[in-house]
């Protein structure tokens, strides 16, 4: 048997906030906008939301201090601000960091929990969550997970519960038009890793596989143009694929790429998507051994000859080098081994396997 849950009401397309924003009136009389420092102001997403809130007579407060890879301290500070402002719901605007932060802020507004229980539950129902993505990578607008930097564990960890599915998501590709080439690459590869890892996961289902293949169909034609100017039509494809890939991992979770990549972000400062891309070819080599039919299907959908061509594309998009000591590798391997990502990987993942992949990055 398998289950399927995707309770988020999704609005997709240009000007979707202006066209369908009146649904926000169902959620309350005051909103907390959660964003980063700059991008939501520059790309027009924040103003589009504020215009709609004003038309609806909904008041708001703004927390615009979410950093990349948000910390426990930041979300706790934001939740205290939200409670003081007596907000009714949370609107999270931005890439993965603001959306993930917004989910946890909504949770902390209704739950008095310590840092241990924050990652384990159980939880009471959070404030309603609205997600407005402005990059095409994370898919957080349709998932039940939020990733935080956890200094107690020495890595990034997930707060995961069906209660964290956003009530609504407004997905407007227009907001991604000003995204830089580097961020466009990183986020597209993040979305691709979601689709492929979900497709290869031990937890994949017939339904999640449909969405995974659809996401790959819309990313594949644009892989070789990610480093150049990207048209609106292409950005619409990438945003659609990102959302579909988010639906995939909401059902199947992620696998070894994410489990290993978090260490490269936490300790070495690589963006999440870039860390994924660096690990992607080695992961696909493993999958060739255990899931050859699905691997061949991936190459077919992406219109690639095979692993060599894929590796060349990843190396061109992400020609990064990394310095890893044996002590680093030992530490990262120990952090990766107990994760759900390892358990979901369709391969006999041992410490030696993980260490070998890390060594290949040097």
Summarize the structure in words.
The protein has about 350 residues and is an alpha/beta fold. The chain has helices spanning about 15-20, 40, 45-55, 70-85, 95-110, 115-120, 180-200, 205-220, 230-250, 255-270, 270-290, 290-300, 305-315, 325-335, 340-345, 350-360; strands spanning about 10, 30-35, 60-65, 90-95, 130-135, 145-150, 155-160, 170. It has 2 domains: about 10-175, Rossmann fold, CATH 3.40.50; about 180-360, Up-down Bundle (Dehydroquinate synthase-like, alpha domain). It has 16 helices and 8 strands. A hairpin with a 4-residue loop joins strand 6 (about 145-150) and strand 7 (about 155-160). The longest helix has 21 residues, at about 230-250. Keywords: Oxidoreductase. InterPro entries: ADH_Fe/GldA, ADH_Fe_C, Alcohol_dehydrogenase_Fe. It holds the Pfam family ADH_Fe_C.
What is the strand arrangement across the widest sheet?
1-8-5-4-2-3
Distance between the termini: 42 Å
- Binned, the helix content reads 40-55%
Q: Which second-level CATH architecture of the largest domain applies? A: Up-down Bundle
As a whole number of angstroms, the C-alpha radius of gyration is: 19 Å
Number of helices: 16
Overall strand count = 8
Structural class: alpha/beta
Count of domain modules = 2
Overall geometry:
globular
CATH topology category name of the largest domain:
Dehydroquinate synthase-like, alpha domain
What kind of oligomer do you see? single chain
